[in-house]
From TrEMBL:
Gene3D superfamilies referenced in this protein's UniProt entry, alphabetically: MetI-like
Protein name: ABC transporter permease subunit
Keyword Nucleotide-binding: no
InterPro entries for this protein: AA_ABC_transptr_permease_3TM, ArtM/GltK/GlnP/TcyL/YhdX-like, MetI-like, MetI-like_sf
Domain ABC transmembrane type-1 residue range list: 88-381
Similarity comment: family membership: Belongs to the binding-protein-dependent transport system permease family. HisMQ subfamily.
A molecular function GO annotation: transmembrane transporter activity
């Protein structure tokens, strides 16, 4: 006991790695906080000297301008806050559609790049080398001015079965409106999905226990058709269709996809799919050729071998760089300002900024939106990546 009391206390020395680690972290935090406070204080001082008001009260003021496309109800007397929501929804619309279409097209082109057929292989190679080397803004301008705006007017529009009309005003199509049997039909679809999930789980457990296969695809398809179909027969049709009609110089009724949306979505899809195709090709080639030979020795055909053996293993290589392409597509949607599509940058950081003069607030909101979208995509893809990762024992 006396030895413990008489023992000299250990002193903190700068030569200790742990001491230096904590010291540098504290200095970094203090420097970052000080820099942030200086920038904030300097900005506030400059705004006061110039008589510029700051804050987010402008979001409650009336916008006073029209918007070409809005997924929710909007009128010119609505507030800037509603304009922000419309711009956000339009950005998310392009992002979601672009991600889905680019993924499908990219996987098809990537597999085609490895095809033994000379023609298919070379066409896929030309597609990749052409579209990934042209800047996305130029592709957007090409599809907008050279393709969609050069189409005839509504009276001379290209039509398909008098249902879909393509003109310089965009794509007009029938609109689905909820009927009396909509909610029972929606509940029946949810019930069918739950039934399919339980069936697949039962089939997998049965296969592991007995080794007997079950036709999950056909059984699931039957459930998805029979349950909602029976509900529609009992409660009536869930939807009624409003057809577009030409009145005067434009179409009335139905849904319309404006040419700005079509050009932006098509350009981003084609551009991003070229990069996804190369990611898919590299992911497939990373899988050992012995896996293919083992599948053939078991009697699997090329199609099932690709779907059940090669692709599941290649996904572990594909997912990380694929996430980056999704992020690039979401951020490239801001290039819509070049053709006037009403998304976040052109609508909120453009029109609203020019009308209100609240540059700092508007830019901060716009940057926060893109940051939130990017982080959300990253989190979802990371969760999926962990689910398909190999678990070592």
């Amino acid at each position: 006991m006396q030895n413990l009391i008489d023992a000299p206390k250990q002193k903190l020395r700068f030569s200790d790695p742990k001491v230096r680690e904590w010291l540098f972290q504290i200095i970094t935090i203090v420097a970052v906080v000080s820099l942030g406070w200086y920038l904030f204080n300097n900005t506030q001082t400059n705004l006061q000297h110039r008589g510029i008001t700051s804050g987010f009260e402008f979001l409650e003021r009336s916008a006073g301008f029209g918007i070409a496309q809005h997924l929710i109800d909007y009128k010119e007397s609505d507030s800037y806050a509603r304009v922000f929501v419309i711009g956000l929804l339009n950005t998310l619309l392009v992002t979601v559609i672009g991600v889905v279409l680019a993924t499908l097209l990219g996987f098809i082109i990537g597999v085609a790049r490895l095809s033994p057929n000379w023609m298919i292989n070379k066409l896929a190679t030309v597609y990749v080398e052409v579209f990934r080397n042209i800047p996305p803004l130029l592709q957007i301008l090409f599809w907008y001015f050279a393709v969609f705006l050069s189409m005839p007017g509504p009276r001379n529009s290209h039509h398909f079965n008098d249902t879909f009309f393509v003109s310089s005003r965009g794509l007009n199509m029938p609109a689905a409106l909820a009927a009396d049997g909509f909610w029972p039909f929606a509940c029946s679809v949810l019930l069918a999905l739950v039934a399919v999930g339980l069936m697949v789980r039962w089939a997998n457990q049965r296969f592991e226990a007995t080794g007997q296969l079950f036709h999950k695809f056909w059984a699931g398809l039957g459930l998805l058709l029979v349950i909602p179909g029976a509900c529609a027969l009992i409660f009536g049709a869930p939807l009624q269709w409003e057809m577009p009609e030409l009145k005067g110089f434009n179409f009335v009724g139905g849904w319309v996809l404006i040419p700005e949306l079509l050009a932006l979505t098509l350009a981003l899809t084609v551009y991003t799919a070229a990069f996804i195709a190369e990611i898919v090709r590299s992911g497939i080639t990373s899988v050992s050729h012995g896996q293919t030979e083992a599948a053939r020795s078991l009697g699997l055909r090329p199609g099932p071998t690709l779907r059940k053996v090669i692709i599941p293993q290649a996904l572990r290589v594909i997912i990380p760089p694929l996430t980056s392409q999704y992020l690039n597509l979401a951020k490239n949607s801001s290039l819509a300002a070049g053709i006037g599509y009403p998304e976040m940058v052109s609508l909120f950081a453009g029109t609203v900024l020019n009308q209100t003069g609240q540059a700092i607030e508007v830019i901060a909101i716009t940057m926060s939106v893109y940051l939130a979208i990017s982080i959300s995509i990253s989190l979802l893809m990371n969760v999926y990546n962990k689910r398909i990762a190999l678990i070592e024992r």
